[in-house]
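In the design runs reported in the main text, the only information available to the sequence generator was the tokenized backbone. The following block is the verbatim input for one such run; it is reproduced so that readers can re-run the procedure and compare outputs position by position.
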């Protein structure tokens, strides 16, 4: 039977570890597949890791990667994908906002020949109004300017075939915007609509509003040069406008038009152009910052220990470990 690997990035999720395992076990009990569950864990201040190891003592299909420090959800997700042995890999969050029961439909579509099956949200229960607004605007902007087609209202919850996973991992990008990387890789893809649930327990471990802004910025900067083209066009237009305005002021001066001291129009124009310059520098800084991150070639993650993982697909430079413990 085919092997399905489920990758779950986790950080301070002790209340949800047991819940997500039980629901996944119930789903796979009805499917003609083998399965493994890989928790990619940033060092947690609660009992998340202990809960996972307790599950592993009961079920060897449960495995865990623990990092030397907190590297964040994107790096944890990619690390789990690299460690997965499955013919297909499912990525799902630990908070159970994405229903594990949808995996059965994903596997069915995978058996039909699709290589990526992503879950697309109809509703977003449990999310604040501000986050919904940011998400709606962000997806519209990304859809309009992105070099690749990134489906709207999607997260990391998806099933990917083995060769899609291998190609995504091989991209070696520092900023792991998974939905963009999967869109970049391509292959035959389809969606499944669902209604997102509130968190089963606990609360989100990142700032929902600003976290969404950061994710949106990764999608824009990482997959489009449109902002750079835009500021170039705006710069040309403003230069032409300022030249025209200078000519108008020159003619008015020759005509004897009295200019009051401290002309408020001049002050406003100076402030406006200064703001445009700072905004343009900020956009360029985002791209320069990403170049800086890429050329450093630092590892996306560093493992402290692994439990049940016999090999990693990562290149040697990313197999740096403080302490590696392999059991089972």
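Verbatim output:
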């Amino acid at each position: 039977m085919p092997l399905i690997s489920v990758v779950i990035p986790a950080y301070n999720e002790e209340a949800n570890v047991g819940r997500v395992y039980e629901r996944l076990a119930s789903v796979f009990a009805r499917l003609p597949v083998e399965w493994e569950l890989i928790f990619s864990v940033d060092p947690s201040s609660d009992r998340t890791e202990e809960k996972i190891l307790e599950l592993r003592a009961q079920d060897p299909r449960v495995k865990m990667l623990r990092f030397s420090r907190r590297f964040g959800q994107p790096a944890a997700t990619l690390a789990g994908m690299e460690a997965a042995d499955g013919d297909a890999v499912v990525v799902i969050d630990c908070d159970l906002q994405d229903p594990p029961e949808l995996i059965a439909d994903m596997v069915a579509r995978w058996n039909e020949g699709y290589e990526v099956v992503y879950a697309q949200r109809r509703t977003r229960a449990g999310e604040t109004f501000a986050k919904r607004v940011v998400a709606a605007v962000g997806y519209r902007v990304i859809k309009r300017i992105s070099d690749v087609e990134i489906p709207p209202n999607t997260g990391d919850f998806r099933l990917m075939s083995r060769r899609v996973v291998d190609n995504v991992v091989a991209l070696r990008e520092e900023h792991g915007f998974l939905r963009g990387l999967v869109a970049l890789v391509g292959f035959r893809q389809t969606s499944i609509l669902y209604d997102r649930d509130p968190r089963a327990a606990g609360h989100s471990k990142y700032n929902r509003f600003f976290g969404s802004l950061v994710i949106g910025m990764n999608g824009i900067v990482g997959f489009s040069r449109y902002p750079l083209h835009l500021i170039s066009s705006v710069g040309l237009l403003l230069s032409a406008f300022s030249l025209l305005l200078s000519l108008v002021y020159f003619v008015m001066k020759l005509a004897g038009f009295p200019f009051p001291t401290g002309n408020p129009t001049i002050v406003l124009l100076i402030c406006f152009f200064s703001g445009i310059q700072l905004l343009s520098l900020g956009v360029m800084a985002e791209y320069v910052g990403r170049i800086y991150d890429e050329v450093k070639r630092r590892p996306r993650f560093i493992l402290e220990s692994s439990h049940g993982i016999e090999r990693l697909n990562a290149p040697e430079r990313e197999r740096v470990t403080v302490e590696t413990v392999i059991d089972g």
